[in-house]
Amino acid sequence: MAAETVTCAKGNNYKLHKEHALTDKKDVSDKPVPVESTKAIVVFVGGAGDKERYYFSGPYGNIQEARKDFDERTTSLAKEGKYKSEWLGYNEVRGKQDIQRHVLSLIPYKSCPVYIVGHSLGGWNGAHLTKIMSEWGYRIQMLITLDPVGEGALVWLGSDIYRERPDPIAADWINIKAMPTKRDSSDGVADFGEKWLISCGPSLNVNIDTNHANALGLFTARIAGSKSAADMLFDSIMKDFP
């Protein structure tokens, strides 16, 4: 290919090589353009003592039970490479480095729909996560908070959580609060951490008669007709697929 010669201000000569034309200019036929494939990422964020010990208790894997149940519904999507879930502790989604290491590494591109399901302290930090990621340009399609905890000063001092109240950013937000008629020890723990009292913001804000530790029960209880939060999460994911 011929190259043009130019002379710079100092008198030196340089050759400029022209770019190769990859397509004939006369060819006006449609060309296939590669596009990003849709892939749903669901992050299940556990509370204190969920994924690792919290002082002298745990790990209990409460949110992991919810994740396992949901993963059974999405087996075919996972096999097709359209779905991926991850189980994280509340302390793994706080701070830029942890978010980059544990969350952003899961997401193939910024327009990928991301779903956050957080229980207890994981609901508190998970709600903060939605705002941080949204401000970074990621697409947070849904936030589900299961009996979120984090208002108490003492729990903030002893746990790796954000001090200020969350201000979530998500296309849809479902909050479910545990209001048991028969309390157990987990409800006392939630009281110590102080539940996040949410009066406005969620598209659906409901109370369920179950204990704080029952993340699976909170996730699968019917809260809108015959639908559970798990059902609505599944429906939202399926909207992105033909």
Write the layout of secondary structure elements.
Elements: E1 3-7, E2 13-17, E3 40-46, H1 62-73, H2 75-79, E4 83-89, H3 96-102, E5 113-119, H4 121-135, E6 139-146, H5 153-158, E7 173-178, H6 185-193, E8 204-208, H7 215-220, E9 222-224, E10 227-228, H8 229-238
Parallel strand pairs: 3-4, 3-5, 5-6, 6-7, 7-8
Antiparallel strand pairs: 1-2, 9-10
**On the 0-100 scale, what is the average pLDDT?**
84
> Count the helices. How many?
8
Strand order of the largest sheet: 4-3-5-6-7-8
Based on the structure given, which CATH architecture is correct? 3-Layer(aba) Sandwich
Indicate the radius of gyration in whole angstroms: 24 Å
Helix content: 25-40%
Q: What class do helices, strands and sheet pairing give?
A: alpha/beta
CATH fold call: Rossmann fold
Low-confidence stretches: 1-10, 13-23, 31-35
Q: What kind of oligomer do you see?
A: single chain
Q: What does the overall shape look like?
A: globular
Detailed description of the structure:
There is one protein chain. The chain is of the alpha/beta class and 242 residues long. It has a single domain (40-238), classed as Rossmann fold. Helix content is 29%, strand content 23%. The chain has helices at 62-73, 75-79, 96-102, 121-135, 153-158, 185-193, 215-220, 229-238; strands at residues 3-7, 13-17, 40-46, 83-89, 113-119, 139-146, 173-178, 204-208, 222-224, 227-228. It has a six-stranded parallel beta sheet, sandwiched between helices. Strand 1 and strand 2 (13-17) form a beta hairpin. The radius of gyration is 24 Å and the shape is globular. The relative contact order is 0.15. The model is unreliable at 1-10, 13-23 and 31-35 (pLDDT under 50). It comes from Pseudomonas jessenii. One of its GO terms (molecular function) is hydrolase activity. This is Alpha/beta hydrolase. Keywords: Hydrolase. InterPro entries: AB_hydrolase_fold.
